[in-house]
Amino acid sequence: MSEVITIGEPMIMFVADSEGDLKDVVHFTRYIAGAEVNVSVGVARLNHSVSLISQVGDDPFGAYIRQFLNKEAVETGLVTVNGRYSTGFQLKSKTEVEDPKVVYFRKGSAAAHLSAELIEKMDFTGAKILHVTGIFPALSPETFDATLKLIEKARTNHLMVTFDPNLRPTLWKDEATMVARINQLAGLCDVVLPGFREGKRLTGRTTKEAIADFYLNNGAKTVIIKLGSTGAYCKRLRSDGQVAETQVSAFHVDHVVDTVGAGDGFAVGIITGILEALPDDQVLERGNAIGAIQVQHISDNEGLPNRNQLRTFIEKAVSKSPEAKDQTTNTLKVI
C-alpha cells in the first residue's frame, strides 16, 4: 500500500475561456478537479506514494480521469469502474476579481454510490497517513458510511488521519447537518485543517486559539488553521502532555489567478511535511508555500510543484528582500 491513502470524487472540470456569466460562455478548457485528487497529485509530485480510493463511470470522463491519475503517478488500483452511474463534472467561471463560480453536475454520480464494502477488502500494510475531507462524505449516505469505515480501519491499523473540512454547503441537507457531521468526523481524526472562516462557522468560536481548543478537546491531537494572507497557525498536544503553538507568516503573491485549490495545496505541504518529520514551523512553511504557488494557476492542481520548484520558490521568496524572512518567521510557545 502507498504511504498516503485518500478517498474522494475526481471530476472533469470545464473552465470558461472567457469572463462572464457561465450561461454566456461558448468555449471551455478541460481539466481534472476534486480536492482529494489535488492532494494526491501534489503528494505524488513530491515523490511520496499515494493511492486514491474512488469510483468513476464507465464513460469517456472516467477513462480520462484514470489516464490522468496514472500519468501523475497516483495509484489507481482502488479506483473502481461502475457501468450504471456516470462520472461527475463541473463548470467553472473565469474571473480575476473574485472567487470563480462553480456549478456541479455530480448528484447521483458513480462516486456517490461507492459503498463501505470496498473498504472492508483493503490492505493497509505499509500505509502511514489517511487523508479525508468533508466533501466525499457529503455526497450520499453511502459515502458518509464509507468514510467512517475507512477512518475506523485506518485507526485500527495505526495510521495517522488528517482531515480538511473543505465545506461544501450545497452538498448537505442543511447547515446544522453539515456542522454536526463535519465535527463528528473531525473528532475521529488526528490532524484537523480548517480555514479560519470555516473554523468560526463550525465551532462558533471567534479566535484561532479557541477554534483549535474546540477540536483538541473533541479528540484531535493537532489543529492547523489556514489564515489566508496572514499565514497559518498550529496548536498541538505533545507527547509529554504539554501544548505547543506555532504560527508562520504567509508568502507574498503578486498576482492571484485562482484561489480554488490553494487549501488542497496547503494540505499537500502538511501531509508531506509530517511524512518527512519536519518541525512544525517547516511543515507550516511548506503548506503556505504550496498554497501560494497554486493560487498563481488557473487549474486546481496544475501548479502543484515538484521538489525543485518548491525549493526554488521558498529560496527566492526568502532572498527577495531584507524583510523576506518575515514570510517564514515562526513563534513557538509551549504551554
Automatic annotation (TrEMBL):
Coiled-coil intervals: none
List residues of the Carbohydrate kinase PfkB domain: 1-306
Q: Name one GO molecular function term.
A: kinase activity
User: Mind telling me which PROSITE patterns this protein's record contains?
Assistant: PFKB_KINASES_2 (PS00584)
User: Pfam families from the entry?
Assistant: PfkB (PF00294)
Q: Which UniProt keywords apply?
A: ATP-binding, Kinase, Nucleotide-binding, Transferase
Q: Is the keyword Cell division in the record?
A: no
Signal peptide region: none
Highest taxon above the source species: Bacteria
InterPro entries this protein is in? Carboh/pur_kinase_PfkB_CS, PfkB_Carbo_kinase, PfkB_dom, Ribokinase-like
User: Family, per the entry?
Assistant: Belongs to the carbohydrate kinase PfkB family.
What name appears for this protein in its UniProt entry? Sugar kinase
- Organism of provenance: Sporolactobacillus shoreicorticis
